[in-house]
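Narrative of accomplishments. A recurring question from our advisory board has been how the design workflow behaves on a single, concrete structure rather than in aggregate. To address it, we present the structure tokens for one chain from the evaluation set, followed by the sequence designed for it. No filtering or post-editing was applied between the two.
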């Protein structure tokens, strides 16, 4: 990769003025690595004929294999119903319960298996090992509380704003038991961001925790719930109850006052529900399991609605065959449950298979970059799953740390962003000690589970490439004119999936039009068609497919930036900046970053007569943190005398992105104000 340091732009004019894919760094094709024979010998999937069984002419029947991994109260009648395309319905007529599938059904054989290892961030605190039996008890008691003390029932929405603690999966599973739709908001998001999601989902109950640890500090978290309720009220939405778990049961760890009649300490109220059991609701396969909000091209985040049957079948199958999880494995996905990765591959997938799943509260590099390897050693973790950003940070801070510990991984995953071959090789050689197979999994919040990845015991690994599509998924790359690029052409285009799959989200909550428009309109062959073949799914990523069939993902083609594997909408950040009275214009562009992949630079111009000042910069930064959270804080805020504009007055983000990335902005002579480009360049470090 070293000889290809300078990013190359390729022509790909999209809806966005500049996209991640356009500033993608291209590295050379790498040699293959073979999966270790010891891994193959024990793998769940070794039969390469699977790809014939899952060929497009056998669609959708092959997905029966996915559904058959679950327990059903009532078996489904129709695998796929396309009559209301593109609102696909999977396993129609079937009835099941996600909590039963993740908890109750394991009791007969695996009652004493650890379901969840909870690792607190402070190293002196005891690790909790929660067996399936204990999980069953705790989920039932909490479900009884939700039903009998809060009046919740199937179909209601509940917003969770919880940190990485065992109580989070317990809360999710209790909701699932009742058929209540959970909407977990990443704990790093601000109270305001939480409030937006509370009102959009019309949650009457908000569930939070008083405090949690991050980088050595016990953070007050309850204060965010107060802001969320106030902000939701501004939208005209009332929250009746705030349920507060205690980080230290029996002790309230937040300075924020409890609001009489609204706030309830869960740990106190639970005493009234001790020993209670709740029968799992028999839910239609097509009912919603959860909402997961994600950023898109407009200011407001959208609630991706995932189904019970299709979603659970998809994450269970991919956990078994791509993650290679067996019930005796100790599996650690170091993502946050506040993102889709955590929903699918910390909670639902591993627990549906009866395995042990690690929930780690804190920062991977706290108190030092050896922490993950100590945890892995102590718990006997043998499957490890994380993002390139975490790998890059661990490599920077502790390149030799993994060699000091006696952990042994059979399988490792990378997800969320492209991984540089150099970083991949450190992961393989040093973290995995050349014993582990690696899968680079490409997918999105909307997808439920993996789309592209090698099948670990079947395919060779190729650093820097996600791999071919997984069994059952049939991608296609289109150019901007809607022509299919020939398979394996090595040319960049927009990656789509030809066929529906059970894990695909059902709709955007309360916004079906946007669902169709954003994901299906662009390459739809006939908007009246009921035939799935006419509705390719637009992922919103640029991609190339090499001659060997492996895909390499270049990044987003829309107004979305992938920061440290987390999706941020440029419009959301711009809207936050525009709330500062001094600001008249704002433009956010993606900048390549050695650790986080991409970071946002924010350009603003001020009201006439105002001068740039630190005070204004601070105000803008504070507005972004209040509206979205610290995760969206811009890398640089650059106050410019004027934005580069076209003659028609459009801000040229492409020029700003080029400046931020130290690239050539190209011909700027046609701008209305070309002279501003040099001035801006001088302002950017
Ligand atoms: C976007 C989705 C999937 C869970 C985590 C992120 C990028 C995802 C890869 C990968 C290159 C990747 C894409 C995608 N992405 N995985 N293996 N290689 N890029 O979920 O927040 O919905 O983001 O992440 O750009 O569209 P998300």
């Amino acid at each position: 990769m070293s000889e290809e340091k300078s990013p190359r732009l390729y022509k790909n004019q999209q809806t966005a003025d500049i996209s991640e894919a356009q500033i993608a760094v291209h590295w050379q094709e790498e040699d293959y690595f073979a999966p270790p024979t010891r891994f193959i010998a024990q793998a769940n999937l070794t039969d390469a004929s699977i790809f014939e069984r899952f060929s497009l002419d056998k669609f959708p029947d092959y997905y029966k294999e996915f559904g058959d991994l679950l327990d059903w109260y009532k078996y489904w009648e129709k695998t796929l119903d396309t009559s209301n395309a593109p609102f696909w319905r999977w396993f129609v007529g079937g009835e099941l319960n996600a909590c039963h599938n993740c908890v109750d059904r394991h009791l007969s054989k695996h009652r004493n298996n650890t379901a969840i290892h909870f690792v607190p961030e402070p190293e002196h605190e005891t690790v909790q090992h929660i067996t399936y039996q204990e999980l069953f008890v705790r989920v039932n008691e909490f479900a009884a509380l939700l039903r009998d003390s809060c009046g919740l029932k199937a179909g209601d929405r509940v917003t969770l704003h919880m940190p990485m603690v065992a109580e989070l999966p317990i809360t999710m599973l209790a909701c699932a038991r009742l058929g209540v739709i959970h909407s977990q908001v990443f704990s790093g998001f601000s109270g305001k961001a939480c409030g937006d999601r509370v009102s959009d989902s019309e949650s009457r109950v908000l569930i939070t925790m008083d405090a949690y640890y991050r980088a050595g500090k016990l953070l007050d978290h309850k204060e965010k719930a107060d802001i969320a309720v106030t902000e939701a009220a501004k939208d005209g939405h009332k929250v009746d109850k705030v349920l507060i778990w205690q980080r230290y049961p029996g002790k309230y760890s937040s300075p924020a006052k409890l609001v009489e009649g609204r706030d309830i300490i869960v740990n106190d109220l639970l005493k009234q529900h001790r020993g209670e059991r709740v029968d799992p609701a028999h839910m239609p396969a097509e009912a919603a399991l959860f909402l997961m909000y994600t950023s898109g091209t407009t200011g407001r985040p959208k609630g991706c609605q995932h189904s019970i049957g299709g979603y659970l079948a998809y994450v269970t199958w991919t956990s078994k065959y791509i993650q290679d999880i067996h019930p005796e494995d100790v599996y650690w996905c170091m993502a946050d449950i506040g993102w889709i990765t955590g929903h699918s591959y910390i909670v639902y997938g591993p627990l549906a298979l009866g395995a042990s799943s690690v929930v780690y509260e804190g920062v991977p590099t706290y108190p030092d970059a050896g922490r993950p390897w100590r945890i892995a050693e102590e718990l006997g973790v043998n499957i490890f799953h994380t993002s390139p950003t975490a790998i890059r940070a661990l490599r920077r801070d502790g390149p030799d740390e993994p060699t000091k510990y006696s952990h042994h991984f059979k399988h490792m995953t990378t997800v969320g962003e492209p991984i540089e071959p150099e970083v991949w090789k450190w992961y393989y050689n040093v973290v995995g000690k050349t014993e582990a197979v690696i899968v680079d999994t490409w997918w999105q919040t909307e997808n439920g589970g993996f789309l592209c990845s090698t099948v670990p015991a079947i395919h060779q690994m190729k650093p820097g490439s996600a791999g071919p599509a997984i069994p059952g998924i049939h991608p296609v790359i289109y150019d901007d004119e809607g022509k299919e690029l020939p398979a394996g052409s090595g040319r960049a285009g927009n990656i789509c999936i030809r066929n529906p799959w059970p894990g695909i989200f059902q709709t955007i909550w309360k916004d079906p039009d946007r669902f169709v428009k954003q994901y299906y309109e662009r390459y739809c062959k006939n908007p009246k068609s009921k035939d799935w073949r006419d509705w390719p799914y637009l992922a919103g990523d640029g991609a190339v497919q090499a001659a060997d069939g492996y895909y390499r993902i270049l990044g987003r083609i829309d107004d979305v930036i992938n920061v440290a594997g987390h999706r941020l909408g440029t419009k959301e950040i711009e809207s936050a900046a525009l709330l500062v009275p001094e600001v008249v214009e704002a433009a956010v562009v993606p900048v390549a970053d050695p650790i986080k992949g991409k970071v946002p630079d924010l350009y603003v111009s001020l009201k006439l007569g105002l001068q740039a000042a630190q005070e204004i910069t601070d105000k803008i930064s504070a507005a972004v943190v209040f509206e979205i959270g610290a995760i969206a804080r811009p890398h640089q805020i650059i106050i410019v005398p004027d934005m580069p504009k076209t003659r028609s007055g459009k801000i040229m983000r492409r020029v700003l992105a080029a400046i931020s990335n130290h690239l050539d902005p190209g011909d700027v002579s046609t701008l209305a104000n070309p002279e501003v480009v040099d001035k801006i360049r001088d302002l950017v470090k």
